[in-house]
Amino acid sequence: MALEHAILVSLLEQPGSGYELARRFDRSIGRFWTATHQQIYRVLRRMEADGWIAAEEVVQDGRPDKKVYAVARDGRSVLSDWLREPVEPETVRHELAVKIRAAAFDDPAALISEVTRHRESHAALLERYRTGEQRDFPPGAALDPQQQLQHVVLRGGIEYERMTIAWLDDVLTTLHRLSD
Known about the structure:
Blueprint: H1 3-13, H2 18-27, H3 37-49, E1 53-58, E2 66-71, H4 73-83, H5 95-102, H6 112-136, H7 145-179
Antiparallel strand pairs: 1-2
Pfam families: PadR, Vir_act_alpha_C
Domain Transcription regulator PadR C-terminal: 92-175
Domain Transcription regulator PadR N-terminal: 7-80
């Protein structure tokens, strides 16, 4: 996936300025596809030049004017073509897993604080996902197709974090047992 595709999806969900788009990446899409603010602005300029998006100047009182981007017909066509392309299963590069295996050749206790730090980070993200789910997808709410697909992706993130936390708990149990 290219950053362009993630931007097209985000702009189809809701048109916005470069700043607003960068904030969306910080809050949600960034968990699946990361990009710096500079990368986002650079790609927006290229996408506008290629006719994938169109910008409307919005005059603001007391602040500089801003450009609000929306997906153009060519952008929808590009996204439609991309959607139909096969996606290869992702390979995982997991440095922490390699370190855990390496602990067999050193002191397993040396990894306990690092694994604990990772667990805390995943637990915080899980809590953020759950809070967002309660806020954006209350039980019994009627969801349109866009919201249903957003929710299924969020549920996948929740399950991934739950699985990762359970695995890290198992790793910690094993490290503690081997350290005794």
